[in-house]
Amino acid sequence: MVNDYAGYTAKKKLIILLLFGTTLIMGVYAISTGSSGLTMGKVVSTLLGQGDPAAKAVILNIRLPRILAGLLAGAGLSVAGCVMQNTLRNPLASPFTLGISQAAAFGAALAIVTLGAGKVQNSIADAVLINNPYLVTTSAFAWAMIATLVILLLAKFRGITPEAMVLAGVALGSLFGAGTTIVQYFAPDVQVAAVVFWTFGDLGRASWNEVIIMTVVVSLSIAYFLMRRWDYNALDSGEESALGLGVNVDRIRLGGMFIASLITAVLVSFLGIIGFIGLVGPHMMRRIIGGDHRYLIPASVLAGSLLLLISDTLARTIMAPVVLPVGAITAFMGAPLFLYLLARGYQKK
Amino acid sequence: MILDIQGLAFKYPSRPVIQNISFEVQKGECLAILGTNGVGKTTLLKCINRILKPQHGVVLVEKEEVFKLSRPELAKRIGYVSQRQGNPRYTVFDTVLLGRKPYIKWDISSRDLEVVNQVLALMDLTDFSLRFLDELSGGELQKVIIARALAQEADVLLLDEPTSNLDLKNQYEVLRIIKDVVQSKQIAAVITMHDINLAIRFADKFLFLKQGEIFTAGGMEVITARNVESVYSIPVCVEHFGNVPVVLPL
């Protein structure tokens, strides 16, 4: 029997390995894609420390931070969605349904309009310039964490159910959406343009500084989630079963929500709103690899990275030289895929 | 004794549910908790397992006060089978493996796999081990959930209506397995039940709850028409087939 089970789990490990390989190849392809005429071979040799200085400059200064940002943001958003769906026991849980993205957008709008962090610059390469990105980021992050804390405090002190937690998130989302509208209403046209630009998710904003911060936050968070994978499995059987199996349900739920919100806040505040990765990544993997978080967490990480890389590559190439906001591409790709998955019904794997 | 409950009480802000509950269970014994719907049977089990926090009382397992233990340590001493079942998208093997959760530090050990194999064989589930829970019958599913609790290798099993929704054959099979395991492993089981005759057939001791308090408790001697009528408020008679009493509603 142990052998049969080992065969059963080996299939899941193979899927993860295949996903890893595909993501790696997609990463190299994404770096080579663009107007500089780079080939995949040239990219690999440059990454290995060879190659000409021009290719090195393009790859290391422009393409690599963007691709790494895509890998990290995809991984982070997808794993955050995976854990939120488990801890809230709600398949619709995501940074959007909890109002965290809307809170970050409000924070950014507030910084751009009232703190003078943004202005419009007319240039071909960059139509809109946010002249103090760290002020925007800090404000977006602070408001995202305020939304998270409200939800966590409601959970902790009012003991609200997971369902009520999502409803609280919807209320917060509406509140912050309304706040953003009011801020925009009183803002001059140029600042409204800056706010709207910020709300489009874009990987091109990431420099090496942001990539380093995202690497630290996302990798530590994934390590925490992996440490808790057995707790999430137990929670899948229901709260009472999990308690009976020795899981400190409140602590796991609050910890999971806090870390997932932290990832979202950091990523949204650096890159803008990138939707659907947190929903589609884990849902797709749940159908392919099953609900066991030993495999679902790494699979969601890789699926999120792959999806965002594909979306970003499409965003850069569909209407080149115009680069579309990746958030719009993820929504275009994600929403129909999500509807298809729902329509196809639950197929066991 | 293996399980010692002293003065357990739990109340919601609006009403008390259970009060002043004290009893003991010896090794190798099955105790049936009987009473009407809403009398506090499930609440009592949840209080023993600290799923609900009782306002008063002490629970001792092997003379150790379990409320002072961490959750994983508590799960090594008390296994709980709730009325709500496992995740339908998990296989039988994965579900039973979850019973090893209190012992797993980072990954499963060979000991964990060995225990799961033993429990699957004991419950006659080996052939089903890679099936998903939603492919099982009600009886098989209940056996899987009990197997998960057995994989915890706990001293005490708490089972909340383990035979509800099962046909007669499966009711007898599930209770027979529980009784065999309790006796062979010298652990204890506390089982809430609705079918008093099924309880008579398998339990060693009986505890009748009425209005959140113990009405009476003991061995077969407490199965009397008077006690049953007082607890359930319906007229009954108790006939004997050999040494086994049978409660018949009139």
Quaternary structure of the protein: heterodimer
- Which CATH class of chain A? Mainly Alpha
Q: What is the general shape of chain A?
A: globular
Using only CA atoms, what is the Rg of chain A? 21 Å
Tally of distinct domains of chain B? 1
SS strand fraction of chain B: 25-35%
Number of strands of chain B: 12
Can you describe this structure?
Chain A: One of its GO terms (cellular component) is plasma membrane. Chain A: It is found in: Cell membrane. Chain A: It is a multi-pass membrane protein. Chain A: GO terms for molecular function: transmembrane transporter activity. Chain A: Its main location: membrane. Chain A has helices spanning 2-32, 40-47, 53-87, 100-114, 133-157, 162-185, 189-199, 208-227, 229-235, 239-244, 249-271, 277-289, 293-317, 326-344, and strands spanning 119-120, 128-129. With 349 residues, chain A is an all-alpha fold. Chain A has one domain (2-344): ABC transporter involved in vitamin B12 uptake, BtuC, CATH 1.10.3470. Chain A has a two-stranded antiparallel ribbon with strand order 1-2. In chain A, a hairpin with a 7-residue loop joins strand 1 and strand 2 (128-129). Chain A is globular and about 60 Å long. The mean pLDDT of chain B is 88. With 250 residues, chain B is α/β, with parallel strands linked by helices. In chain B, strands 6-7-8-3-9-10 form a six-stranded mixed beta sheet, sandwiched between helices. A four-stranded antiparallel beta sheet of chain B has the order 2-1-4-5. A two-stranded antiparallel ribbon of chain B has the order 11-12. The relative contact order of chain B is 0.17. Chain B has one domain (3-249): Rossmann fold (3-Layer(aba) Sandwich). Chains A and B meet through helix 1, helix 9 and helix 10 of A and helix 2, strand 6, helix 3 and helix 4 of B.
